[in-house]
Design goal:
Layout lengths: L3 H17 L4 H19 L2 H5 L2 H5 L4 E10 L5 E12 L5 E7 L5 H17 L6 E6 L8 H15 L8 E4 L6 H15 L19 H18 L9 E4 L4 H12 L3 E7 L2 E4 L6 H12 L7 H5 L4 E4 L10 E3 L9 H9 L4 E3 L8 H9 L3 E3 L1 H4 L2 H14 L6 H23 L8 H20 L3
Parallel strand pairs: 3-4, 3-5, 6-7, 6-10, 10-11, 11-12
Antiparallel strand pairs: 1-2, 2-4, 7-8, 8-9
This protein binds NADPH dihydro-nicotinamide-adenine-dinucleotide phosphate.
Protein backbone atom coordinates (compact mmCIF):
# COMPACT_ATOMS: atom_id res chain seq x y z
CA UNK A 1 0.00 0.00 0.00
CA UNK A 2 1.24 3.44 -0.92
CA UNK A 3 1.22 6.26 1.67
CA UNK A 4 -1.36 9.06 1.18
CA UNK A 5 1.13 11.72 0.09
CA UNK A 6 2.59 9.44 -2.60
CA UNK A 7 -0.89 8.44 -3.79
CA UNK A 8 -1.86 12.11 -4.13
CA UNK A 9 1.37 12.73 -6.01
CA UNK A 10 0.65 9.86 -8.45
CA UNK A 11 -2.92 11.05 -8.97
CA UNK A 12 -1.73 14.59 -9.70
CA UNK A 13 0.93 13.58 -12.20
CA UNK A 14 -1.40 11.13 -13.96
CA UNK A 15 -4.26 13.65 -14.21
CA UNK A 16 -1.86 16.04 -15.91
CA UNK A 17 -0.35 13.42 -18.24
CA UNK A 18 -3.80 12.21 -19.31
CA UNK A 19 -5.06 15.76 -19.91
CA UNK A 20 -1.97 16.78 -21.90
CA UNK A 21 -1.77 13.57 -23.94
CA UNK A 22 -5.40 12.58 -24.60
CA UNK A 23 -6.07 9.08 -25.89
CA UNK A 24 -2.42 7.96 -25.61
CA UNK A 25 -3.22 4.88 -23.55
CA UNK A 26 0.11 3.04 -23.92
CA UNK A 27 1.96 6.20 -22.87
CA UNK A 28 -0.30 6.64 -19.84
CA UNK A 29 0.26 2.97 -18.89
CA UNK A 30 4.07 3.26 -19.08
CA UNK A 31 4.14 6.53 -17.14
CA UNK A 32 1.85 5.23 -14.39
CA UNK A 33 4.03 2.19 -13.80
CA UNK A 34 7.13 4.34 -13.27
CA UNK A 35 5.43 7.09 -11.27
CA UNK A 36 3.83 4.57 -8.89
CA UNK A 37 7.25 3.01 -8.23
CA UNK A 38 9.17 6.23 -7.67
CA UNK A 39 6.49 8.33 -5.89
CA UNK A 40 7.64 7.44 -2.34
CA UNK A 41 11.23 8.29 -3.30
CA UNK A 42 10.24 11.64 -4.86
CA UNK A 43 7.86 12.72 -2.12
CA UNK A 44 10.63 12.19 0.42
CA UNK A 45 13.09 14.26 -1.68
CA UNK A 46 11.84 17.91 -1.47
CA UNK A 47 14.37 19.15 -4.04
CA UNK A 48 13.02 16.72 -6.71
CA UNK A 49 9.48 17.94 -5.97
CA UNK A 50 10.52 21.61 -6.13
CA UNK A 51 12.44 21.12 -9.36
CA UNK A 52 9.44 19.27 -10.88
CA UNK A 53 11.71 16.53 -12.16
CA UNK A 54 8.92 14.06 -12.89
CA UNK A 55 6.77 16.73 -14.55
CA UNK A 56 9.73 17.41 -16.85
CA UNK A 57 10.58 13.75 -17.50
CA UNK A 58 7.07 12.98 -18.81
CA UNK A 59 7.33 15.78 -21.40
CA UNK A 60 9.47 14.67 -24.38
CA UNK A 61 12.37 17.00 -25.15
CA UNK A 62 11.40 16.88 -28.82
CA UNK A 63 8.82 15.08 -31.00
CA UNK A 64 9.36 14.89 -34.75
CA UNK A 65 6.58 13.72 -37.09
CA UNK A 66 6.97 13.66 -40.84
CA UNK A 67 5.53 12.52 -44.16
CA UNK A 68 7.17 9.50 -45.81
CA UNK A 69 6.12 9.31 -49.48
CA UNK A 70 7.34 6.41 -51.62
CA UNK A 71 6.35 4.43 -54.68
CA UNK A 72 5.41 0.73 -54.58
CA UNK A 73 6.30 -1.88 -57.22
CA UNK A 74 3.07 -1.19 -59.12
CA UNK A 75 3.99 2.46 -59.56
CA UNK A 76 1.39 3.56 -57.02
CA UNK A 77 2.24 6.34 -54.57
CA UNK A 78 2.12 5.39 -50.87
CA UNK A 79 2.18 7.77 -47.93
CA UNK A 80 3.23 6.76 -44.43
CA UNK A 81 3.93 8.73 -41.28
CA UNK A 82 7.38 8.80 -39.65
CA UNK A 83 8.20 9.57 -36.01
CA UNK A 84 11.17 10.21 -33.76
CA UNK A 85 10.50 10.94 -30.10
CA UNK A 86 13.63 12.32 -28.40
CA UNK A 87 12.54 11.83 -24.83
CA UNK A 88 15.50 12.58 -22.58
CA UNK A 89 19.18 13.40 -23.11
CA UNK A 90 20.23 13.96 -19.48
CA UNK A 91 22.76 11.11 -19.41
CA UNK A 92 23.83 10.82 -23.06
CA UNK A 93 22.85 11.19 -26.72
CA UNK A 94 19.34 9.98 -27.53
CA UNK A 95 19.31 6.23 -28.21
CA UNK A 96 16.51 3.84 -29.08
CA UNK A 97 15.13 1.67 -31.84
CA UNK A 98 13.01 2.26 -34.91
CA UNK A 99 9.78 0.25 -35.31
CA UNK A 100 8.05 -0.39 -38.64
CA UNK A 101 4.61 -1.84 -37.94
CA UNK A 102 1.10 -0.93 -39.01
CA UNK A 103 0.09 -0.27 -35.38
CA UNK A 104 2.70 2.49 -34.83
CA UNK A 105 1.24 5.76 -33.55
CA UNK A 106 2.35 8.63 -31.33
CA UNK A 107 1.23 6.91 -28.12
CA UNK A 108 3.29 3.79 -28.87
CA UNK A 109 6.33 5.89 -29.82
CA UNK A 110 6.09 7.91 -26.59
CA UNK A 111 5.63 4.85 -24.37
CA UNK A 112 8.65 3.19 -25.95
CA UNK A 113 10.82 6.34 -25.70
CA UNK A 114 9.78 6.79 -22.06
CA UNK A 115 10.65 3.17 -21.19
CA UNK A 116 13.90 3.50 -23.10
CA UNK A 117 15.04 6.43 -20.92
CA UNK A 118 15.02 4.29 -17.76
CA UNK A 119 16.28 1.17 -19.50
CA UNK A 120 19.28 3.04 -20.91
CA UNK A 121 19.97 4.49 -17.50
CA UNK A 122 20.05 0.94 -16.05
CA UNK A 123 22.63 -0.25 -18.60
CA UNK A 124 25.40 1.76 -16.86
CA UNK A 125 26.26 3.27 -20.29
CA UNK A 126 25.87 6.98 -21.22
CA UNK A 127 22.73 6.89 -23.39
CA UNK A 128 19.60 9.06 -23.35
CA UNK A 129 16.17 7.76 -24.40
CA UNK A 130 14.39 7.92 -27.77
CA UNK A 131 12.26 5.85 -30.12
CA UNK A 132 11.12 6.20 -33.68
CA UNK A 133 9.32 4.42 -36.45
CA UNK A 134 6.52 4.42 -38.93
CA UNK A 135 3.11 2.87 -39.57
CA UNK A 136 4.71 1.16 -42.58
CA UNK A 137 4.75 -2.67 -42.47
CA UNK A 138 7.56 -4.47 -44.35
CA UNK A 139 5.49 -7.69 -44.28
CA UNK A 140 4.66 -8.79 -47.81
CA UNK A 141 6.75 -6.00 -49.37
CA UNK A 142 9.55 -6.70 -51.85
CA UNK A 143 13.17 -5.84 -50.99
CA UNK A 144 12.98 -2.98 -53.51
CA UNK A 145 9.88 -1.54 -51.84
CA UNK A 146 11.47 -1.80 -48.39
CA UNK A 147 14.56 -0.03 -49.75
CA UNK A 148 12.57 2.81 -51.29
CA UNK A 149 10.63 3.26 -48.08
CA UNK A 150 13.79 3.27 -45.93
CA UNK A 151 15.45 5.81 -48.22
CA UNK A 152 12.47 8.15 -48.04
CA UNK A 153 12.23 7.73 -44.24
CA UNK A 154 15.93 8.51 -43.78
CA UNK A 155 15.84 11.49 -46.14
CA UNK A 156 13.89 13.33 -43.44
CA UNK A 157 15.26 11.60 -40.31
CA UNK A 158 18.92 12.27 -41.17
CA UNK A 159 18.69 15.96 -40.24
CA UNK A 160 17.66 15.08 -36.67
CA UNK A 161 20.21 12.36 -35.80
CA UNK A 162 24.00 11.96 -35.55
CA UNK A 163 26.61 9.99 -33.65
CA UNK A 164 26.66 12.55 -30.78
CA UNK A 165 22.99 13.56 -31.05
CA UNK A 166 20.74 10.58 -31.58
CA UNK A 167 21.65 7.00 -32.55
CA UNK A 168 18.74 4.82 -33.76
CA UNK A 169 18.72 0.99 -33.91
CA UNK A 170 16.27 -1.77 -34.90
CA UNK A 171 13.01 -2.90 -33.29
CA UNK A 172 9.88 -4.66 -34.60
CA UNK A 173 10.05 -4.76 -38.40
CA UNK A 174 13.55 -3.26 -38.51
CA UNK A 175 16.31 -5.86 -38.74
CA UNK A 176 19.63 -6.13 -40.58
CA UNK A 177 18.10 -5.52 -44.02
CA UNK A 178 16.35 -2.31 -42.98
CA UNK A 179 19.34 -0.98 -40.99
CA UNK A 180 21.46 -1.52 -44.12
CA UNK A 181 19.13 0.52 -46.34
CA UNK A 182 18.77 3.24 -43.67
CA UNK A 183 22.52 3.48 -43.13
CA UNK A 184 23.24 3.59 -46.86
CA UNK A 185 20.94 6.57 -47.34
CA UNK A 186 22.26 8.33 -44.21
CA UNK A 187 25.83 7.98 -45.45
CA UNK A 188 24.93 9.21 -48.91
CA UNK A 189 23.12 12.31 -47.65
CA UNK A 190 25.51 13.28 -44.87
CA UNK A 191 28.72 12.20 -46.59
CA UNK A 192 30.08 10.63 -43.42
CA UNK A 193 30.74 7.07 -42.23
CA UNK A 194 29.98 7.16 -38.53
CA UNK A 195 28.29 4.99 -35.92
CA UNK A 196 25.00 6.87 -36.19
CA UNK A 197 22.96 3.68 -36.48
CA UNK A 198 23.56 0.48 -34.52
CA UNK A 199 22.76 -3.06 -35.56
CA UNK A 200 24.93 -2.57 -38.63
CA UNK A 201 26.31 -5.49 -40.64
CA UNK A 202 29.43 -7.16 -39.25
CA UNK A 203 31.49 -6.12 -42.29
CA UNK A 204 30.64 -2.39 -42.00
CA UNK A 205 30.83 -1.35 -38.37
CA UNK A 206 28.39 -3.70 -36.63
CA UNK A 207 29.24 -5.27 -33.29
CA UNK A 208 29.60 -8.97 -32.82
CA UNK A 209 26.64 -10.39 -30.87
CA UNK A 210 24.35 -7.39 -31.53
CA UNK A 211 21.69 -9.54 -33.27
CA UNK A 212 21.87 -12.05 -30.41
CA UNK A 213 22.17 -9.50 -27.59
CA UNK A 214 18.56 -8.88 -26.53
CA UNK A 215 17.73 -12.59 -26.38
CA UNK A 216 21.02 -13.65 -24.82
CA UNK A 217 20.84 -10.80 -22.32
CA UNK A 218 17.29 -11.82 -21.42
CA UNK A 219 18.48 -15.36 -20.66
CA UNK A 220 21.45 -14.11 -18.60
CA UNK A 221 19.07 -11.94 -16.58
CA UNK A 222 16.58 -14.80 -16.15
CA UNK A 223 19.40 -17.08 -14.96
CA UNK A 224 20.12 -14.57 -12.20
CA UNK A 225 16.46 -14.33 -11.24
CA UNK A 226 16.21 -18.13 -11.06
CA UNK A 227 19.42 -18.30 -9.02
CA UNK A 228 17.78 -16.21 -6.26
CA UNK A 229 15.61 -19.30 -5.70
CA UNK A 230 18.39 -21.82 -6.23
CA UNK A 231 17.10 -22.73 -9.71
CA UNK A 232 18.40 -22.65 -13.31
CA UNK A 233 17.19 -23.19 -16.90
CA UNK A 234 18.30 -26.83 -16.79
CA UNK A 235 15.36 -29.11 -17.58
CA UNK A 236 12.78 -26.31 -17.45
CA UNK A 237 9.90 -26.00 -19.93
CA UNK A 238 9.89 -22.54 -21.51
CA UNK A 239 7.18 -20.69 -23.45
CA UNK A 240 8.35 -18.01 -25.86
CA UNK A 241 6.08 -15.71 -27.88
CA UNK A 242 7.18 -14.05 -31.10
CA UNK A 243 9.46 -15.52 -33.75
CA UNK A 244 11.48 -12.41 -34.59
CA UNK A 245 14.91 -11.26 -33.54
CA UNK A 246 14.38 -11.33 -29.78
CA UNK A 247 12.40 -14.59 -29.75
CA UNK A 248 14.93 -16.39 -31.97
CA UNK A 249 17.99 -15.68 -29.85
CA UNK A 250 16.13 -16.11 -26.58
CA UNK A 251 15.16 -19.58 -27.79
CA UNK A 252 18.71 -20.38 -28.87
CA UNK A 253 20.31 -19.35 -25.57
CA UNK A 254 17.59 -20.93 -23.38
CA UNK A 255 18.02 -24.19 -25.32
CA UNK A 256 21.80 -24.08 -24.90
CA UNK A 257 21.34 -23.50 -21.17
CA UNK A 258 19.42 -26.77 -20.96
CA UNK A 259 15.82 -25.62 -21.25
CA UNK A 260 13.07 -27.14 -23.37
CA UNK A 261 11.56 -24.37 -25.53
CA UNK A 262 8.10 -25.55 -26.59
CA UNK A 263 6.40 -22.54 -28.22
CA UNK A 264 6.97 -19.69 -30.69
CA UNK A 265 4.38 -17.40 -32.27
CA UNK A 266 3.64 -14.60 -34.69
CA UNK A 267 0.67 -12.31 -35.08
CA UNK A 268 -1.36 -15.12 -36.72
CA UNK A 269 -0.97 -17.83 -34.05
CA UNK A 270 1.46 -20.03 -32.14
CA UNK A 271 3.15 -23.41 -32.53
CA UNK A 272 3.52 -25.94 -29.72
CA UNK A 273 6.28 -28.51 -30.07
CA UNK A 274 6.10 -30.80 -27.00
CA UNK A 275 9.51 -32.29 -27.79
CA UNK A 276 11.10 -28.86 -27.68
CA UNK A 277 13.31 -27.02 -30.16
CA UNK A 278 16.75 -28.30 -31.12
CA UNK A 279 19.49 -26.74 -33.27
CA UNK A 280 17.98 -28.08 -36.53
CA UNK A 281 14.51 -26.78 -35.74
CA UNK A 282 15.99 -23.45 -34.61
CA UNK A 283 17.89 -23.10 -37.89
CA UNK A 284 14.65 -23.75 -39.79
CA UNK A 285 12.90 -20.91 -37.89
CA UNK A 286 15.87 -18.59 -38.40
CA UNK A 287 15.84 -19.11 -42.15
CA UNK A 288 12.04 -19.02 -42.35
CA UNK A 289 11.85 -15.65 -40.62
CA UNK A 290 15.01 -13.89 -41.83
CA UNK A 291 15.35 -15.10 -45.43
CA UNK A 292 12.11 -16.65 -46.63
CA UNK A 293 10.10 -14.19 -44.52
CA UNK A 294 7.38 -16.78 -44.00
CA UNK A 295 4.83 -17.47 -41.24
CA UNK A 296 5.39 -19.57 -38.11
CA UNK A 297 2.62 -22.03 -39.10
CA UNK A 298 5.05 -23.44 -41.69
CA UNK A 299 6.93 -24.99 -38.71
CA UNK A 300 4.29 -27.71 -38.36
CA UNK A 301 4.50 -28.59 -42.07
CA UNK A 302 8.22 -29.32 -41.55
CA UNK A 303 7.94 -30.79 -38.01
CA UNK A 304 4.54 -32.54 -37.85
CA UNK A 305 4.80 -33.54 -34.17
CA UNK A 306 4.12 -29.87 -33.42
CA UNK A 307 0.66 -28.30 -33.44
CA UNK A 308 -0.35 -24.89 -34.81
CA UNK A 309 -2.98 -22.89 -32.96
CA UNK A 310 -4.28 -20.11 -35.26
CA UNK A 311 -5.36 -16.85 -33.65
CA UNK A 312 -4.20 -17.88 -30.17
CA UNK A 313 -1.43 -16.96 -27.73
CA UNK A 314 0.80 -19.61 -26.13
CA UNK A 315 0.10 -18.82 -22.45
CA UNK A 316 -2.25 -21.76 -21.83
CA UNK A 317 0.52 -24.36 -22.29
CA UNK A 318 1.91 -25.70 -18.96
CA UNK A 319 5.44 -24.40 -18.28
CA UNK A 320 8.04 -23.38 -15.71
CA UNK A 321 9.16 -20.14 -17.37
CA UNK A 322 7.49 -17.69 -19.79
CA UNK A 323 9.51 -15.28 -21.90
CA UNK A 324 7.20 -12.94 -23.89
CA UNK A 325 9.17 -11.62 -26.88
CA UNK A 326 6.55 -10.29 -29.34
CA UNK A 327 4.83 -7.01 -28.47
CA UNK A 328 3.12 -4.77 -25.87
CA UNK A 329 0.09 -5.98 -23.90
CA UNK A 330 0.31 -9.55 -25.23
CA UNK A 331 -0.27 -10.99 -21.72
CA UNK A 332 -3.61 -9.87 -20.30
CA UNK A 333 -5.08 -10.81 -16.93
CA UNK A 334 -6.70 -14.03 -18.22
CA UNK A 335 -3.41 -15.08 -19.87
CA UNK A 336 -1.52 -14.43 -16.61
CA UNK A 337 -4.05 -16.59 -14.74
CA UNK A 338 -3.52 -19.37 -17.27
CA UNK A 339 0.23 -19.17 -16.76
CA UNK A 340 -0.15 -19.44 -12.99
CA UNK A 341 -2.57 -22.37 -13.36
CA UNK A 342 -0.10 -24.07 -15.72
CA UNK A 343 2.68 -24.01 -13.12
CA UNK A 344 4.71 -21.05 -14.38
CA UNK A 345 7.10 -19.71 -11.74
CA UNK A 346 9.04 -17.07 -13.63
CA UNK A 347 8.11 -14.45 -16.25
CA UNK A 348 10.89 -12.33 -17.73
CA UNK A 349 10.02 -9.85 -20.47
CA UNK A 350 11.93 -9.74 -23.74
CA UNK A 351 9.37 -7.48 -25.41
CA UNK A 352 8.60 -3.97 -24.16
CA UNK A 353 5.59 -3.86 -21.79
CA UNK A 354 4.13 -7.22 -22.92
CA UNK A 355 2.20 -7.63 -19.65
CA UNK A 356 -0.76 -5.42 -18.77
CA UNK A 357 -0.86 -3.91 -15.23
CA UNK A 358 -3.56 -6.46 -14.28
CA UNK A 359 -1.37 -9.34 -15.48
CA UNK A 360 1.59 -8.03 -13.46
CA UNK A 361 -0.67 -7.91 -10.42
CA UNK A 362 -1.53 -11.61 -10.96
CA UNK A 363 2.18 -12.54 -11.18
CA UNK A 364 3.15 -10.57 -8.11
CA UNK A 365 0.27 -11.71 -5.92
CA UNK A 366 1.03 -15.34 -6.79
CA UNK A 367 4.69 -15.01 -5.84
CA UNK A 368 6.12 -15.49 -9.35
CA UNK A 369 9.52 -14.12 -10.23
CA UNK A 370 8.57 -11.30 -12.61
CA UNK A 371 10.84 -8.87 -14.43
CA UNK A 372 9.81 -5.89 -16.60
CA UNK A 373 11.32 -5.49 -20.06
CA UNK A 374 13.24 -2.36 -19.17
CA UNK A 375 15.47 -4.52 -16.95
CA UNK A 376 15.49 -7.92 -18.64
CA UNK A 377 15.63 -6.83 -22.31
CA UNK A 378 18.28 -4.14 -21.80
CA UNK A 379 20.98 -6.36 -23.32
CA UNK A 380 20.04 -5.18 -26.81
CA UNK A 381 20.57 -1.49 -26.25
CA UNK A 382 23.59 -2.25 -24.08
CA UNK A 383 25.27 -3.99 -26.98
CA UNK A 384 24.24 -1.10 -29.22
CA UNK A 385 26.12 1.09 -26.72
CA UNK A 386 29.12 -1.23 -27.09
CA UNK A 387 28.80 -0.88 -30.88
CA UNK A 388 28.94 2.93 -30.48
CA UNK A 389 32.10 2.59 -28.39
CA UNK A 390 33.77 0.30 -30.94
CA UNK A 391 32.84 2.71 -33.77
CA UNK A 392 34.25 5.68 -31.85
CA UNK A 393 37.58 4.01 -31.15
CA UNK A 394 37.63 2.40 -34.63
CA UNK A 395 38.03 -1.07 -33.20
CA UNK A 396 36.20 -4.37 -33.26
CA UNK A 397 35.96 -6.56 -30.20
CA UNK A 398 35.83 -10.35 -30.27
CA UNK A 399 32.65 -12.25 -29.51
CA UNK A 400 34.12 -13.26 -26.14
CA UNK A 401 34.82 -9.62 -25.24
CA UNK A 402 31.32 -8.44 -26.18
CA UNK A 403 29.73 -11.40 -24.39
CA UNK A 404 31.71 -10.66 -21.23
CA UNK A 405 30.50 -7.01 -21.29
CA UNK A 406 26.92 -8.16 -21.90
CA UNK A 407 27.01 -10.63 -19.00
CA UNK A 408 28.49 -8.01 -16.68
CA UNK A 409 25.88 -5.42 -17.64
CA UNK A 410 22.96 -7.84 -17.14
CA UNK A 411 24.42 -8.85 -13.82
CA UNK A 412 24.82 -5.19 -12.75
CA UNK A 413 21.21 -4.49 -13.73
CA UNK A 414 20.08 -7.49 -11.70
CA UNK A 415 22.10 -6.25 -8.73
CA UNK A 416 20.47 -2.78 -8.74
CA UNK A 417 17.03 -4.39 -9.05
CA UNK A 418 17.83 -6.31 -5.86
CA UNK A 419 19.21 -3.18 -4.19
CA UNK A 420 16.14 -1.02 -4.79
CA UNK A 421 13.49 -3.73 -5.15
CA UNK A 422 14.00 -6.08 -2.20
CA UNK A 423 10.95 -5.86 0.07
CA UNK A 424 10.91 -6.26 3.86
CA UNK A 425 9.83 -9.91 3.51
CA UNK A 426 12.86 -10.66 1.31
CA UNK A 427 10.97 -10.97 -1.99
CA UNK A 428 12.20 -8.93 -4.94
CA UNK A 429 9.95 -6.45 -6.71
CA UNK A 430 11.86 -6.08 -9.99
CA UNK A 431 9.44 -3.41 -11.26
CA UNK A 432 10.15 -1.18 -8.29
CA UNK A 433 13.89 -1.92 -8.36
CA UNK A 434 14.30 -1.17 -12.07
CA UNK A 435 12.16 1.97 -12.00
CA UNK A 436 13.83 3.51 -8.95
CA UNK A 437 17.38 2.68 -10.07
CA UNK A 438 16.72 3.93 -13.62
CA UNK A 439 15.03 7.10 -12.36
CA UNK A 440 17.65 8.18 -9.80
CA UNK A 441 20.46 8.47 -12.33
CA UNK A 442 18.38 10.47 -14.82
CA UNK A 443 16.90 12.70 -12.09
CA UNK A 444 20.31 13.48 -10.58
CA UNK A 445 21.70 14.40 -13.99
CA UNK A 446 18.74 16.72 -14.60
CA UNK A 447 19.29 18.39 -11.23
CA UNK A 448 22.98 18.94 -12.04
CA UNK A 449 22.25 20.39 -15.49
CA UNK A 450 19.75 23.06 -14.40
CA UNK A 451 16.46 24.06 -15.94
CA UNK A 452 16.89 22.91 -19.55
P1 LIG B 1 10.72 -8.58 -34.88
O1 LIG B 1 10.02 -7.72 -35.86
O2 LIG B 1 11.98 -9.23 -35.24
O3 LIG B 1 9.72 -9.71 -34.35
C1 LIG B 1 8.50 -9.38 -33.77
C2 LIG B 1 7.73 -10.65 -33.51
O4 LIG B 1 6.58 -10.34 -32.72
C3 LIG B 1 7.23 -11.30 -34.78
O5 LIG B 1 7.15 -12.67 -34.60
C4 LIG B 1 5.85 -10.65 -34.91
O6 LIG B 1 4.95 -11.43 -35.67
C5 LIG B 1 5.40 -10.61 -33.49
N1 LIG B 1 4.45 -9.50 -33.31
C6 LIG B 1 4.65 -8.20 -33.61
N2 LIG B 1 3.55 -7.49 -33.38
C7 LIG B 1 2.64 -8.36 -32.92
C8 LIG B 1 1.31 -8.23 -32.50
N3 LIG B 1 0.68 -7.04 -32.49
N4 LIG B 1 0.67 -9.35 -32.07
C9 LIG B 1 1.30 -10.57 -32.07
N5 LIG B 1 2.57 -10.74 -32.47
C10 LIG B 1 3.22 -9.66 -32.88
O7 LIG B 1 10.90 -7.64 -33.58
P2 LIG B 1 11.88 -7.85 -32.33
O8 LIG B 1 12.07 -9.29 -32.05
O9 LIG B 1 13.04 -6.97 -32.54
O10 LIG B 1 11.02 -7.18 -31.16
C11 LIG B 1 10.13 -7.92 -30.33
C12 LIG B 1 9.88 -7.16 -29.03
O11 LIG B 1 11.13 -6.97 -28.35
C13 LIG B 1 9.29 -5.75 -29.21
O12 LIG B 1 8.47 -5.46 -28.09
C14 LIG B 1 10.52 -4.86 -29.14
O13 LIG B 1 10.21 -3.53 -28.75
C15 LIG B 1 11.32 -5.59 -28.07
N6 LIG B 1 12.75 -5.30 -28.05
C16 LIG B 1 13.55 -5.50 -29.15
C17 LIG B 1 14.90 -5.27 -29.07
C18 LIG B 1 15.81 -5.58 -30.19
O14 LIG B 1 17.03 -5.51 -29.99
N7 LIG B 1 15.34 -5.93 -31.36
C19 LIG B 1 15.51 -4.72 -27.84
C20 LIG B 1 14.61 -4.63 -26.72
C21 LIG B 1 13.27 -4.89 -26.85
P3 LIG B 1 4.60 -10.99 -37.18
O15 LIG B 1 5.74 -11.42 -38.01
O16 LIG B 1 3.35 -11.70 -37.47
O17 LIG B 1 4.43 -9.49 -37.16
Amino acid sequence: MMDKLSQRYVDGIMADVIARNPGENEFHQAVREVVESVAPYITSSPHLMKLKIMERIVEPERVIMFRVPWMDDNGEIQINRGYRVQMNSAIGPYKGGIRFHESVNLSIMKFLAFEQTFKNSLTTLPMGGAKGGSDFSPKGRSDAEVMRFCQSFMTELQRHIGQDTDVPAGDIGVGGREIGFLFGQYKRLRDEFTGTLTGKGLGWGGSRLRPEATGYGLCYFTEQMLATRGESFQGKTVLISGAGNVAQFTAQKAMRLGAKVVTLSDSNGFIHDPEGLDETKWQFVYELKNYRRGRIKEYVERFPQATYYPGQRPWGIPCDIALPCATQNEIEKADAEKLVAGGCRCVAEGANMPSTPEAIQVFQSNGLLYSPGKASNAGGVSTSGLEMTQNSIRQKWTEEEVDAHLRRIMSDIHAVCLKYGTEDDGTVNYVKGANIAGFIKVANAMVDQGLV
